[in-house]
Amino acid sequence: MAGTAIAELNADGLRRDARIERLKLFGLSSPALLLVLVILVLPVGWLFYLSFVGADGGFSLENYARMIEQKSYERIFTTTFEVSLLTTGLAILIGYPFAYFLSQLPGRLANLFMIAVLLPFWTSLLVRTYAWLVLLQREGLINKSAMAFGLWDEPVRMVHDMTGTLVGMVHIMLPFLILPVYGAMKSIDVDLVKAAANLGASPTRAFWTVFCPLTLPGLFAGALMVFILCLGFFVTPAVLGGGKVIMVSMKIVSNIQLFVNWGAASALGVVLLALTVAILWIASRFLNLTQIAGSGH
Amino acid sequence: MLNWFQSPATETQVTHGGRLWLYALAALVILFLVIPTFIVIPMSFSDSQYLEFPPTRWSLRWYEHYVDSPDWMLATRTSLKVAVLTMVVATPLGVLAAYALHTAKVAFVRLAFVLLITPMMVPLVLVAIGAFYVYVKLDLLYTVTGLVFAHTVLALPLVVIVVGSAFKSFDMAQEDAARSLGAPRWKAFLTVTLPQVRFAVVTAALLSFLTSFDEVVVAMFVSGGDNPTLTRNMFNALRDQIDPTIAAISTIMIVITVVVMTLAQIFGARSK
Amino acid sequence: MTARQTEALPIRVSHVTKTYGSVHALDDVSLDVVSGEFLTLLGPSGSGKTTLLMVLAGFTRPDRGSLKFGDREVIRTPPHLRDVGMTFQNYALFPHMTVAGNVAYPLRLRNVPKAEITERVERALETVQLGGYGSRRIGQLSGGQRQRVALARSIVFEPRILLMDEPLSALDKKLRDQMQIELRHLHDKLGMTTVYVTHDQREALTMSDRIAVVNHGRIMQLATPRELYDRPANRFVADFIGDSTFLPVRRSGRGVAFGDMALTINGPVPEADNLLLMIRPERVTLVRDGQSVAPESNQFAATVREVVYQGDSYLLQSELVDGTLLTMRGAVRGANLSAMPTIGDRVTLNLAPDDAAVIDGSGC
């Protein structure tokens, strides 16, 4: 019996101490977790429930059925994907070379030009959207200067349609792409490119076969972030789309503000969230999610 | 000058001349990024009813209009109040959470982290209508408290990520050392850890402020009544007309952003 | 200067076990550290030596067991109430405080009056030969100086027990050798019970009163440096400390035999099925032609396979009849030098009975 007593020496007390310490430490995160739970998770769960409640108050799939049956919903989803894909594509096309330009600059100069990326990034997107509204309107700066230079004779309509939406979206999304790509480029060992050149690769070939593949994780993370943000975007298309570009989030808002139809809005929200989660989930199989979360900042 | 064109720009002997296309593109991108950010500033000083650039006559009338408007003043006060409170709530909560996630050896730390950064991933519209729905029940609609809670949730991921990465690069053995020297854990944290991650904490606080101050979608739903935010009123005004007063307000917001970001950059650089 | 001799405390570790999943980091470890002793925990990385030190400091909570400082049971006492000084591998100095700020830190926590703090900080800095360095910033110090500050900080509040976790591992070799002697002198002067962790066997042999060799979460042997080197308890200890050649031997009468050859040994033969003769390279001598040897000496015929000249000595690797390669270290001086054997030579190697140790070969 004495043997057992020794073998279990203080075991209960130590186990209790360990549990208490764990709880205390983890408890420090509880106010934050609680807030996220109450303000975000529970309401979204509630919306999930509402999406299955029909007009008669009973369980129903009518909110989802409506999305399949009504032509207008099909257009909304098509538009959402179209805008998201185009914005992501344009952001890559513009942002990748620019990130490359930044990565080739000496440190101080790169920091200076980085301000050009960071300032818009942190300026209110409402302010920037407003600026585009002003710039792109019929009597706006772009039309006026284009006509002054003789690029076109009549004012061209650029706002309250797809063009305006895309311009505004790309402007807002660019930093989300540039920052992670720039990060990936900066972390590449310059010696690798030198080695490729040394082995006889032409500069172009060295870029495409060595440099570019190494930046793909950053590009992927950035593009993913942009795409996901676009899917749920509201302010810019609402202001610059002029009612002609209707994305999922805008339909959710109008379902509530105009029609007070919580079921319909919730169902759309659930679908939007499911899409986002599915994309993140697929991406997480190839990428570290925290990397994406950290990429924007 | 000709020499520069022929001088190598890279290790692989590409000359600056061969890279002109890249420089031209970069210049365009910079213009594209910067002009819309600042164009409203000169416009806000125009005397015209219509927004024009460059202004033909300068005046401060839109600023006067803004300052004289009780509605805009109320909104400004709400926005500032909410942003400051969000900063005050989100920063300590986020710092505590980041510390817990960094030190607690519990299985669901990963889950907790994912939960804390979800507000970044969930479409804002969903957060907005969710909060709206709950606030109606909790009687928090159009209250500063409700706004601060919602904005805190949006700011938490930033605080957790910024401060969390500072903890990661901090040598936790220092905290152990402090404890072995006689400091209880909380005291070790306050006297040894916190002073060394303080720049990250300040950066996180400033980012929290901006997150709240610039937020539109959630504010659209849960602010209003006695407590409308600046962004909410601006958004509503934007849909109706292009009011030059908004240019003046935008200018003020840009100035606030620039000041806050400059501070954040200074602190951010020092935290590295 | 006069450092106050603090009254040391004995440490009694009993039945401490710590598992991580299915891995035993500490497997029912019991250990007594005598008051005022300098005891070293020596082992390879992952052996559990650091875990044991962390249990002593209170940073690792074991699954069970007892830990006594003197008469006081402290296994459940949090680190800040244990009153032990500790130095860390990378010093863990506080870079946002000055040298004096670092050293004063434990005193301020104990609410020592200001004037006394100043005086005690300076005294501690003088003890580690850094008098006058108080206002320096940590970033301005060299590695050796940082080590001294860490030491001053861990002794300034006069703890009765001092724990050191590989304190010299970040220093270059020359400084390390010098600090070893200094640390030992300091220990003798202050007299605290000291537990020192290292993976460097030479460091352990140089500094310790006793060494506990740790592996797989168990203490393989606890002995003085001399005993450990000459009479290792098993193959692991013999292998870990110093170089040696092992010859499989079997029990034969009261002694042991290598093949057909009965060996003369002076030490005890352990009770084990699997016996090994441990031969340290520097204890073997080369028998010259016509040289007389003590009759009871053990002599091995061998063929030279490798000769390496190393300046202060030479290494000779020769093959015994059973194919084992035996390593011997020879002195380089006078006649030895000119008569250094060459590859292929047939030689006779001599091992005195005092230098022949039979150990338990069942390993670890």
What is the first-to-last residue Cα distance of chain C?
47 Å
- Which structural class is indicated by helix and strand composition of chain C? alpha+beta
Number of DSSP-assigned strands of chain B: 0
- Look at the structure and give the mean pLDDT of chain B: 89
| Oligomeric grouping of the chains | heterotrimer
Shape of chain C: elongated
Distance between the termini of chain B: 38 Å
Name the CATH class of the largest domain in chain C. Alpha Beta
Determine the number of helices of chain C (DSSP H or I, runs of at least 4 residues): 9
Shape of chain B: globular
Annotated CATH homologous superfamily of the largest domain in chain C: P-loop containing nucleotide triphosphate hydrolases
CATH topological fold name of the largest domain in chain C: Rossmann fold
3D architecture notes:
The complex is a heterotrimer of chains A (297), B (272) and C (364). Chain A has helices spanning 2-7, 11-27, 30-50, 62-69, 71-104, 107-122, 125-136, 141-148, 162-186, 190-198, 203-231, 235-240, 248-257, 262-284, 289-295. Chain A has 297 residues and is mainly α. Chain A has two domains: 1-50, no CATH class; 70-295, MetI-like fold, CATH 1.10.3720. The termini of chain A are far apart. Residues 292-297 of chain A have low confidence and may be disordered. In chain B, helix 9 crosses helix 10 (185-214). Chain B has 272 residues and is an all-alpha fold. The longest helix of chain B has 34 residues, at 70-103. Chain B has two domains: 2-61, no CATH class; 69-240, MetI-like fold (Orthogonal Bundle), CATH 1.10.3720. In chain C, strand 4 and strand 5 (72-73) form a beta hairpin. Chain C folds into two domains: 11-235, P-loop containing nucleotide triphosphate hydrolases (Rossmann fold); 243-360, OB fold (Dihydrolipoamide Acetyltransferase, E2P) (Beta Barrel). Chains in contact: A-B, A-C, B-C.
